Amino acid sequence: MTEEMTNVLEQIHQSYIGLLAEVDRICQKHGIHYYLIGGTLLGLCRNGDFIPWDDDTDILMFRADYEKFVKVYPVEAKAQYPLLNFRSYVQFFDFISKIAAMDITYKNTVYGDDEFYEYRYNHPTLDIFILDHRPKHFAWHTFRMRLVYLLAMGHRKHIQYDQHKGLNGVITFIGSHIGKLFPAKRLYAWYERLQKAEKNPSGRYYLSNDMMTRKMWGLMYTQEMFDGERTAVLRGLTVPVPYLTEAILTMQYGDYMKLPPEDQRKPQHLMEIL
Length: 274
What we know:
Blueprint: H1 3-30, E1 35-36, H2 38-46, E2 57-62, H3 63-76, E3 83-84, E4 98-100, E5 106-109, E6 125-133, H4 138-152, H5 167-179, H6 184-195, E7 204-207, E8 221-222, E9 231-234, E10 237-240, H7 245-253, E11 270-273
Parallel strand pairs: 2-6
Antiparallel strand pairs: 1-2, 3-4, 4-6, 5-11, 6-7, 7-8, 9-10
Helix pairs in contact: 1-3, 4-5, 4-6
């Protein structure tokens, strides 16, 4: 990375501390449990800080905590940290609600179509992942979730077909065009119904709103991974982390202390800030 990009990422990381502090304040006030997860947890364990080239941050909540959070957060939060609840928009980006840090604005993003999305994602964003009960017939369950995701892609302005080649590309083309026949918010309701379909708790969970990535999709989380309080310090801010942090990171990343190839050490979202 260039020195200029390094300086930009440092601004973004410092902005995330303010955002996380606001999330933590509201969660503590209302007894809502959350945990660092994904690249944010990985960076804290491997680097003792944010991953130098990472330009987003991730937290995790169980379903009950998430539903409580999205009700109280818009009322309590500072205006500079708005909740971007995917349920509120007819332009489909993904099924992950986010919180934006409005103190930094990106001139453009890697995924493009910024005007189509009304520039709401042209800021550093915190992703909120959800743990739902894992159904018994998980393969059939996730097939149906993938199908609804495919239909929802019809509510994007563009689809990157270079990521969907061969038969997969044909299925994506047909499925997304069929999806245009259904209102976006109806598809959101179908997806959420599937997320919460399992009513019999077994102590096993899955990330139900994760994007269609093979790395994370379908991993099983257990209650034991979160039983017990554990915190860590990120740039002076004390934040909750999963009790079995190392087990989760190993499940997600394998040898998580190993750095990725150098050509992968770059931001995934921003291209340039204003």
